């Protein structure tokens, strides 16, 4: 198999050294393979299928004096500073760290926990994607279309309700229980509920069809740099808190976009020069029995083989504890994607059973004092597994990304409203006129 290298996987300098950014621009976009440079916002390179990456004018991270993720404005692809208090919060663990025998375990909590300064009201780090994406999109004159297994939909609906930006959100039937808001639903939110036999990938396919209609615009998924750079603030916040990059970074993944985002943020910190000269090792985990990226990575393959890595995918997804960690078409093989991120960081992948994830959820709440979502439990279980295997040294700096939590806590402060579907679609191939105005 011919090896495709990401343009930045073997060097500190990530971007084309000969192309400067215009004085009136904050950033440009650079292809991760061909080094093609673009000065307009787009989702794809014209020469190949690689991911584009933001190249910011400011190579040193200068924090803004605002709450939440807006303080990382210099490395977000938007011009207006986000002033919401939503953002990642990093703290040094004592109880879980003691249980695992780790001296420098830091937790990035992405949910609602006011006592820790965490104010993500939808309780998911998907809010970090939604704020920059919708702010970037609000003056486009088009309607944004996206697909979600649940948490992304809730986050985008929340920010839509706050900003008035109209969104069409396609969610499989299994994700409807996650459709709630800490405020009343607004007319800007158009939720399309798919049939119970549909999964996240079906939602993606229907969203792609909708986005091709006049006046509609695809949100872009992993190709959307606003989403990736928004999630990358987890790595930035952790490194600022520790005054250095971590040695290890743990996160559960469905599509893997969060892992790519952490890698890209670390590359920028590497270029900054003040946070260390070594990339954090990525530890990414999936929930058994649906683990296509784990299977491909551990077989040494860049490509996912459907018959081998995810046979009977819908059956496997139905059996998952954290079914939100399911994507039949993840950005694993694409240049600049998950495979390259793992390869660049000497990363590892983990396959976590339902029982291991449930035990980890209970352990975290008992020791740290806050409830967490099943995907976060998968990440905690992978950390436990790494400790038991002797992968980690007790004094190494470790970031555990708790990608969602605090629902019990947010229910104390807010009345939660259900998001009512705007339309229903039994399959991804229904006539579009049946589900839109």
Give a structural overview.
This protein has 14 helices and 18 strands. The protein is of the alpha/beta class and 437 residues long. The strands form five sheets. The chain has a six-stranded mixed beta sheet, sandwiched between helices. Strands 12-8-9-11-18 form a five-stranded parallel beta sheet. A three-stranded antiparallel beta sheet has the order 2-1-3, with no helix packed on it. The termini are far apart. Mean pLDDT is 93; it is low at 1-13.
Taken together, the total number of domains comes to 2
How large a portion of the residues is in β-strands, by DSSP E? 15-25%
CATH architecture of the largest domain: 3-Layer(aba) Sandwich
Q: What is the averaged pLDDT score?
A: 93
Count of DSSP H/I helices: 14
Main features:
single chain, 437 residues, alpha/beta, Rossmann fold, six-stranded mixed beta sheet, five-stranded parallel beta sheet, 14 helices, disordered N terminus
Describe this structure in a few short sentences.
Strands 4-5-16-13-14-15 form a six-stranded mixed beta sheet, with helices on both faces.
List the helices and strands and how they pair.
Layout lengths: L26 E5 L5 E2 L13 E5 L32 E4 L2 H6 L3 E6 L2 E2 L4 E2 L7 H11 L5 E5 L3 H13 L3 E5 L8 E2 L7 E6 L5 H12 L4 E3 L6 H7 L1 H10 L5 E5 L4 H16 L8 E7 L4 H7 L7 H4 L3 H6 L19 H7 L3 E5 L1 H15 L5 H15 L8 E6 L4 H7 L3 E2 L4 E3 L12
